[in-house]
């Protein structure tokens, strides 16, 4: 059975949908079969992907339509069950049913085995459907901005997730979003977030206007501006979550230390990208620190991967990371 990931935070406008779009697009490029479910009546997910589905989740949950008939294709490997404002009227209807908290989980059952991962984009409030999403989820990803009020809300949300899911570790990761390292407060709060939640906290997604421009145009960040900081940050997220949830092709193992005369670009560059959609040539030269085999901070072996056109190197020990676009520099 594939995994079901709820992307949730009770706060609105903190990057949930942006994360769902660019995480799922990266996973799909990497070769995973991904289904997206929008449980937010704003219906932003389909818009951000530039698709106009005829059928929506309302028909599945209220009219009893087969979910397979309400799936639309958004990209290769990437399907969606979209939402629209009709979901607002669905919620009171669902709340009247005896099985109200498991309606979504049951609806997903017939298609679950077709996908490696189902990702649910939750709305920014405590609705019947958000609770359904939590109940259905095998994994929970919590994006959060790095601000005082967000972190207070995060504490409450984590407690709620533990209440609903028990303590079996369904909370897979906390993702700082819209991070601006020029702000002293953000740097300090990220540090306290890491002290409080440890390895659950992933590398932040930095603030990047290209991320808001791309959703306005119905494109993923890899399509709109693969050289942007936003694309690099989401490419790394794709890699880390693929690992944590054992999705798709495994990243290449660290290469053995080369002999002094050996071309050190060989180990990483000889790995073909594990996805088919990129038109970029897999082999480039002059990639600087990407070619170092060990972490420049702590000296341990770097983990490496190719995702969405990026060569990613990162250290599990000290969190050092470096990404290069395989086909050139970034902006
Ligand atoms: N890293 C980022 N840098 C700059 N802008 C961003 C970033 N992430 C998201 N945005 C923008 O912030 C706005 C809110 O993002 P998004 O819609 O993803 O949030 P959300 O949590 O899904 O909101 P809602 O709760 O309303 O569903 C959007 O305009 C989006 O393009
Ligand atoms: Mg949203």
Folded structure, characterized:
The structure is a single chain. The strands form two sheets. A seven-stranded mixed beta sheet has the order 3-4-2-5-1-6-7, sandwiched between helices. A three-stranded antiparallel beta sheet has the order 8-9-10. The protein folds into two domains: 3-244, 3-Layer(aba) Sandwich (Rossmann fold), CATH 3.40.50.300; 266-325, no CATH class. The chain contains twelve helices and ten strands. The chain has helices at residues 16-29, 44-48, 57-61, 86-95, 103-108, 128-136, 148-165, 184-197, 209-216, 221-224, 229-244, 266-269; strands at 3-7, 34-38, 72-75, 78-81, 117-121, 139-145, 171-177, 303-307, 310-314, 321-325. It is an alpha/beta fold. Helix 1 packs across helix 11. Bound molecules: adenosine-5'-triphosphate (ATP) and magnesium ion. Adenosine-5'-triphosphate binds next to helix 1 and helix 9.
Protein traits:
single chain; 331 residues; alpha/beta; Rossmann fold; 2 domains; seven-stranded mixed sheet; three-stranded antiparallel sheet; 12 helices; binds adenosine-5'-triphosphate; binds magnesium ion
Give a concise summary.
This protein is of the alpha/beta class and 331 residues long.
**For the CA atoms, what is the radius of gyration?**
20 Å
Mean pLDDT metric: 85
The CATH level-2 architecture of the largest domain is identified as: 3-Layer(aba) Sandwich
List segments where confidence is low: pLDDT < 50 over at least 5 consecutive residues.
258-289
**CATH homologous superfamily assignment of the largest domain:** P-loop containing nucleotide triphosphate hydrolases
As a percent range, the share of strand residues is: 15-25%
- The level-1 CATH class of the largest domain: Alpha Beta
Query: Which class of secondary structure composition applies to the elements?
Result: alpha/beta
